[in-house]
Design brief:
The chain has one domain. The chain contains 16 helices and no strands. Helix 3 packs across helix 11, helix 6 packs parallel to helix 9 and helix 7 runs parallel beside helix 14. It starts with a helix and ends with a helix. The C terminus is likely disordered.
């Protein structure tokens, strides 16, 4: 791997670490309503990124994109985070977080339906295992009241939105990473409007909760989108994709570590099923042979001894 590609891959991997803190920081932000929290986080990340673009003189080029780009970007960011924050406000955090992290599994499933791809037996097996884990988690959590079911539904919908957004983004691979700053600003404005229409305002009550909101806006709901975009465009996308399947494990362990859940047998089995299903579904990607600069798999490259024998 070249130094440039290796550096881009390392940059992309930091997004996975940042996304792993999304659940614990959301819970730490207190009782802030979902749309208000989305508005605050994306407002911060969008303003910071836009100021950097203005200083560098790249704002106009970044924001001059066709409407389908804006529609997909805003729908993905706004829809996913509004649903995710709703899930964590209305269901046990560990369970909601694990359900949300069905998105790597769904990305594999949806990618197999793209032109030139096809659905194989291991895709179906992986999806089935992941959904069995999700069903086991919901039915055995002991919290099947109305509020929890709203939260579970929002968590699954969040996974569906993010996986759809991620796969559909392949149509716009030439759109510059800097455009994400505009998506953040529009998402913040839409979230603020929805907050004023549908929610009662509850601000963070302590300095710690404000710090959690700032941490969300700067990292998992901010910088993570930019470094991930850079990584998948210029780094090793196979390695990045495989690493994403560790996100639910790290996120769940962080929630438990900070006292927002317990590592029960139900949690362990669901975590193994969801993550294991994703790994099975991604078998082609994980076992795909590396290609040398000649374009052939490493195993197909002629050895030096063979070359000398032919000479």
């Amino acid at each position: 791997m070249s130094p440039i590609r290796g550096r881009a891959t390392l940059i992309g991997l930091t997004a996975i670490l940042m996304w792993s803190t999304l659940g614990v920081l959301t819970v730490a932000s207190g009782a802030v309503p979902p749309f208000l929290l989305t508005a605050l986080c994306f407002g911060l990340s969008g303003l910071v990124a836009t100021m950097a673009l203005v200083v560098s003189g790249r704002a106009r080029a970044a924001f001059r994109q066709p409407w389908p780009v804006w529609t997909l970007g805003v729908a993905g960011l706004f829809g996913y985070h509004a649903l995710y924050f709703t899930a964590l406000r209305n269901a046990p955090p560990v369970a909601a977080n694990l359900l949300n992290y069905l998105w790597p599994l769904l990305i594999v499933l949806f990618s197999a339906l793209l032109p030139g791809e096809k659905l194989k037996a291991h895709h179906i097996a992986g999806v089935a295992l992941g959904f069995l884990g999700a069903a086991f988690l919901v039915t055995r959590s002991g919290s099947l009241g109305g509020g929890s079911m709203i939260g579970y539904g929002a968590a699954f919908a969040a996974a569906l939105v993010w996986s759809t957004y991620s796969v559909a983004s392949r149509r716009f691979e030439r759109v510059p990473t800097a455009t994400v700053a505009g998506f953040c600003l529009v998402t913040s404005a839409l979230s603020a409007a929805c907050h004023f229409l549908f929610e009662t305002t509850i601000w963070p009550a302590t300095a710690g909760q404000w710090l959690a909101v700032a941490g969300l806006g700067l990292f998992p709901v901010g910088a993570a989108f930019f470094v991930w975009d850079h990584g998948v465009k210029h780094g090793d996308i196979q390695l990045l994709g495989a690493a994403a399947y560790g996100t639910p494990l790290i996120a769940t362990l962080l929630l438990i570590l900070f006292g927002h859940g317990t590592f029960s047998g139900t949690t362990a089995l669901a975590c193994l099923a969801i993550t294991g299903g994703a790994l099975i579904a991604a078998k082609d990607m994980l076992l795909r042979p590396r290609r040398s600069p000649t374009g052939l798999p490493d195993s197909a490259q002629p050895t030096r001894s063979a070359d000398r024998g032919r000479r």
